[in-house]
Amino acid sequence: MSTKSKKKCTTSRRSPKAQNTTGTEFLQTTLFIRIKADFYYLRRLQTDPMVATIGWRLFGKHDTYDVAIREFGPTCDCRDFLDRRDGKDPKGCKHIQALKAVGLLE
Protein backbone atom coordinates (compact mmCIF):
# COMPACT_ATOMS: atom_id res chain seq x y z
CA MET A 1 0.00 0.00 0.00
CA SER A 2 1.49 3.32 -0.99
CA THR A 3 1.69 6.18 1.46
CA LYS A 4 -0.59 8.28 -0.74
CA SER A 5 -3.46 5.80 -0.42
CA LYS A 6 -3.30 5.52 3.37
CA LYS A 7 -6.06 7.32 5.24
CA LYS A 8 -4.71 9.61 7.93
CA CYS A 9 -6.78 10.68 10.87
CA THR A 10 -5.79 12.13 14.20
CA THR A 11 -7.60 13.12 17.32
CA SER A 12 -6.85 15.65 19.99
CA ARG A 13 -8.46 16.30 23.33
CA ARG A 14 -8.51 19.60 25.13
CA SER A 15 -9.57 19.33 28.76
CA PRO A 16 -9.95 22.69 30.48
CA LYS A 17 -11.34 22.82 33.98
CA ALA A 18 -14.82 24.28 34.18
CA GLN A 19 -17.19 24.96 37.04
CA ASN A 20 -20.75 23.77 37.40
CA THR A 21 -23.53 25.77 39.08
CA THR A 22 -22.43 24.69 42.57
CA GLY A 23 -18.91 26.05 41.99
CA THR A 24 -17.14 22.68 42.02
CA GLU A 25 -14.68 21.97 39.23
CA PHE A 26 -15.16 19.24 36.67
CA LEU A 27 -13.27 18.17 33.58
CA GLN A 28 -14.66 19.37 30.26
CA THR A 29 -13.42 17.48 27.20
CA THR A 30 -13.55 18.54 23.57
CA LEU A 31 -12.80 16.01 20.86
CA PHE A 32 -11.52 16.90 17.40
CA ILE A 33 -10.70 14.62 14.51
CA ARG A 34 -8.67 15.37 11.38
CA ILE A 35 -9.52 13.65 8.12
CA LYS A 36 -6.88 14.48 5.54
CA ALA A 37 -6.72 18.33 5.68
CA ASP A 38 -10.14 18.84 7.29
CA PHE A 39 -10.71 19.21 11.03
CA TYR A 40 -14.01 18.24 12.64
CA TYR A 41 -15.29 18.94 16.13
CA LEU A 42 -17.15 15.87 17.45
CA ARG A 43 -20.19 15.70 19.66
CA ARG A 44 -21.82 12.48 20.83
CA LEU A 45 -25.52 12.34 19.97
CA GLN A 46 -28.23 11.02 22.23
CA THR A 47 -29.90 8.34 20.14
CA ASP A 48 -33.14 6.44 20.44
CA PRO A 49 -32.08 2.78 20.94
CA MET A 50 -34.82 1.75 18.51
CA VAL A 51 -33.17 3.85 15.77
CA ALA A 52 -29.41 3.79 16.41
CA THR A 53 -27.04 2.36 19.01
CA ILE A 54 -24.54 5.25 18.83
CA GLY A 55 -24.33 8.55 16.99
CA TRP A 56 -21.79 11.30 16.41
CA ARG A 57 -22.14 14.78 14.90
CA LEU A 58 -19.10 16.06 13.03
CA PHE A 59 -18.88 19.85 12.74
CA GLY A 60 -16.56 20.89 9.91
CA LYS A 61 -15.55 24.28 8.59
CA HIS A 62 -18.35 24.32 6.02
CA ASP A 63 -20.52 21.28 6.72
CA THR A 64 -21.99 19.20 9.53
CA TYR A 65 -22.51 15.44 9.27
CA ASP A 66 -24.29 12.88 11.42
CA VAL A 67 -22.84 9.37 11.65
CA ALA A 68 -24.75 6.59 13.40
CA ILE A 69 -24.72 2.83 13.87
CA ARG A 70 -28.13 1.53 12.84
CA GLU A 71 -29.66 -1.93 12.50
CA PHE A 72 -27.99 -2.60 9.14
CA GLY A 73 -24.65 -0.94 9.87
CA PRO A 74 -23.08 2.52 9.96
CA THR A 75 -24.69 5.44 8.13
CA CYS A 76 -23.64 9.01 7.35
CA ASP A 77 -25.62 11.85 5.84
CA CYS A 78 -22.78 13.10 3.62
CA ARG A 79 -23.31 13.10 -0.17
CA ASP A 80 -20.55 10.53 -0.75
CA PHE A 81 -22.23 7.98 1.51
CA LEU A 82 -25.76 8.68 0.28
CA ASP A 83 -24.88 8.72 -3.44
CA ARG A 84 -22.09 6.16 -3.76
CA ARG A 85 -21.66 3.94 -0.70
CA ASP A 86 -25.00 3.27 1.05
CA GLY A 87 -25.62 -0.46 0.60
CA LYS A 88 -22.69 -0.78 -1.82
CA ASP A 89 -19.46 -0.23 0.10
CA PRO A 90 -19.23 -1.88 3.54
CA LYS A 91 -16.30 0.39 4.53
CA GLY A 92 -18.46 3.50 4.27
CA CYS A 93 -17.41 7.10 3.66
CA LYS A 94 -14.34 8.86 5.06
CA HIS A 95 -16.32 10.03 8.13
CA ILE A 96 -17.29 6.46 9.06
CA GLN A 97 -13.80 5.14 8.33
CA ALA A 98 -12.16 7.83 10.49
CA LEU A 99 -14.48 7.22 13.47
CA LYS A 100 -13.81 3.48 13.19
CA ALA A 101 -10.04 4.08 12.97
CA VAL A 102 -9.98 5.90 16.31
CA GLY A 103 -12.36 3.44 18.03
CA LEU A 104 -15.47 5.62 18.24
CA LEU A 105 -17.49 3.26 16.01
CA GLU A 106 -17.40 -0.52 15.83
- Uncertain runs are 1-5
* Secondary-structure element order, N to C: EEEEEEEEHH
Mean pLDDT: 83
Q: Report strand order across the widest sheet.
A: 1-4-5-6-7-8
Biggest beta-sheet profile: 6 strands, antiparallel
State the end-to-end distance.
24 Å
Integer-rounded radius of gyration: 16 Å
Q: With helices defined by DSSP (H or I, 4 residues minimum), what is the helix count?
A: 2
- Helix-residue proportion: 10-25%
Tally of strands: 8
Q: SS-based structural class? A: mainly beta
Structure in words:
With 106 residues, the protein is mostly beta strands. It has 2 helices and 8 strands; from the N terminus they run ββββββββαα. Helices cover 14% and strands 41% of the residues. Strands 1-4-5-6-7-8 form a 6-stranded antiparallel beta sheet, covered by helices on one side.
